[in-house]
User: What shape does this take?
Amino acid sequence: MFKFQEFSHLYALALIPVLIVLFLLAIYWRRKRLKTLGDEQPVNFQLMGFIPGRSTLKFILAIGGLSMVIIGWANLQFGDKQDTVQTKGVDVVIALDVSKSMLATDIKPDRLTRAKQLIMQLADKMHNDRVAFIVFAGKSYMQIPLTVDYSSLKMMVQTASPAIVPTQGTVIGDAIEMAIDAFPKGEKKYKSMIIISDGEDHDPKATELIKQAAEEGIVVHTVGIGSPQGTTINDPDTKAVKLDDQGNPVISKLNEEELRNLAIAGGGTYSQLNNAEEVSDKLVSNLDKMEQKNLGAVVFKDYSSYFQPFLIIGLVLLLIEWLIPGANIKYRKNGTIA
Assistant: This one.
């Protein structure tokens, strides 16, 4: 099994296609300029040291070197040793609201980013529990079934956004139903669910499903994101403030009452996310107080880093590119081309 220790650094690879487009535009612009001086081929041979294709070779070396450096920067790791160990823990399903209202900025930088930060901290503190991850808006989608692979959890959390759920809204009940199905059948304990949402849209079936979850032995904790006063929402598609049918700005508010009632019905706790450290500590403490069960799982205990080959290859490619001289126009003293 492999993973990237700093997966977010791979986003820098998005620069590569941008640079390729800019290079192609530069070639087009250069050829257009050369045509104003005459036929392209005779003009090229008046460039000192001109070799056809050399600029393309230098660009390929630079792009290849940059790509290797970025991959090395992300630090590829492989699990060298795996052991089957007996651990005690509980099964936890985390359900994250990714509706567009989670992009509101009444808490900085926005609700969704703060929710992701909370889950990351939970992943760092939950060492023995199995965890599943669900995203929901108008519909729910299982991202990761129950697992002890916290690195996979972190990768999926980083990619969570309103774009991955085409149906918008806040249908918490659908997420609860999916979570119930995610847990092992026949057990009436060792199970917990954490719902992270602004609770903006009231879902009438959510309370009944929470009661069903409680009957299945699932303890439900809720975390509220946002402020009761609320704020406007910028639509990610139009980049403008979202308006209602009457043309008035939509104000998205944290529905604490809804989330608190769900927590009470689920036998758990409600927390408003003001401080991610405090809320994550509270949730982990509540999980640790639950009755634990034996979880036999294959876990990768030792990871080795393999960033060195990528960095070496990248630096060598960049060095070769730097050592290859470019072509320059040679002028005589009177200003004519030599």
About this structure: DSSP finds ten helices and 13 strands in the chain. Residues 329-338 have pLDDT under 50 and may be disordered.
